[in-house]
Amino acid sequence: MSASAGIPSGTQILAALILLLCPAIFAAAPLASADDPFTLGWHAFEAGDYSHALSLWLPLAEQGDMHAQSNLGFMYEYGQGTARNAQQAAHWYRQSARNGLAVAQFNLALMYANGGGIRQDSLRAAYWFRQAAEQGLADAQYQLAEHLQQYMGVPRNSVAVHGWLTRAAKQGQPDARTALAANSGAVPLASVAHTSEREDSGDDLSSLSVGTAWPVTSVHAVTNNHVVAGVEQVQLIDVTGTQLTASVVLRDVEHDLALLRVSESGSLPPALPLASADPRPGSRVFTIGYPRIDIMGRTPKLSDGIISALNGYQDDPDSYQISVPIQPGNSGGPLLNMDGAVVGIVTSMLGAYDDAAEPQVLPNVSYALKVEVLRSMLPQALRQTTTAEQLPASPAPLADLAERIQGSVLIVMVAD
Fold this sequence. Notes:
This protein has helices at residues 37-46, 50-62, 66-78, 86-98, 102-114, 122-134, 138-151, 159-170, 174-182, 293-296, 371-377, 380-383, 398-405; strands at 12-15, 25-28, 185-190, 193-194, 208-215, 220-223, 233-237, 243-252, 257-262, 284-289, 301-309, 319-322, 334-336, 342-353, 360-370, 410-415.
């Protein structure tokens, strides 16, 4: 969704009664004309004539007007012009939310999070918070971050939580600024590349997010969830420039993993083998990926280093600390041993934040998710899938390993 979908310019929003989490939001569409039914309803609402406002907005809502639908939800939730009815409130919020109005998505998420008159559902709350957050609603961005850690078990220092807090804080959301100030210091930074700054250049990379992926079967590829957040389909591009459409079929938000699937078996390059043994501190490792393709181009790039520690950020047992230099765009790439087998998935760099300021990357400190986490994520059926072709895992000089593996590393492109 675009950042402005469902919230027309000039929209007035009023904060209403305080709920357990935060206020619901009431939105009015731009005034069309003095005798427009929605405008008349708005004037009636402002004058406190809620019953009249309800009578004017109900026909519009039934015709599919998302602003009228959202406002009916608000009125049913708070008993303005009608008796309180949580089921009706949720119904109209849901209709508006499905039509794309961010404030309705946010209010519906609050109802699911609070269980206010409807069944509490943390998963649906997270979904609708996310829909509103993707549209740029700062309160939704903050609430999504809080919801992920309080109800979904996502650590506060994770890329997902910190990222949403940062986006909210940059819009001036006070609670997000407070949360960031309390957590200021070194945090992991997602290594996905956003190239929307090239939007006016005419370059075909404009308005894209870019990461790295690699095949695990003849139809499945792996990347980081933050690379494909908010979308269901992506483009995969191999070293020859061939493009494939892939669908996101499985997500592990907590561990920042996503599984992609292409429709045609055998259309992916050979799968990479997963390592059978864990690396030790000091083990040499490398990655191949696509950092900053807007600057560095679309040829795969290699960087190498060592396993610095067997635990990651704040002793996270599911990840490694590595000295391999990575850049935005390396996210999702394979971390390989000197047999050419995958020991991890490149996830983040270490950066220093000062309140809500832009992060500064700290050199030679990166993180990769352990391949065991990937194995446990994959469904049994996928683990038993036989691949048409898989690269061998055998020792070789780094240059030979790079030549063997680079054809199986893919660009992930996601339209913003």
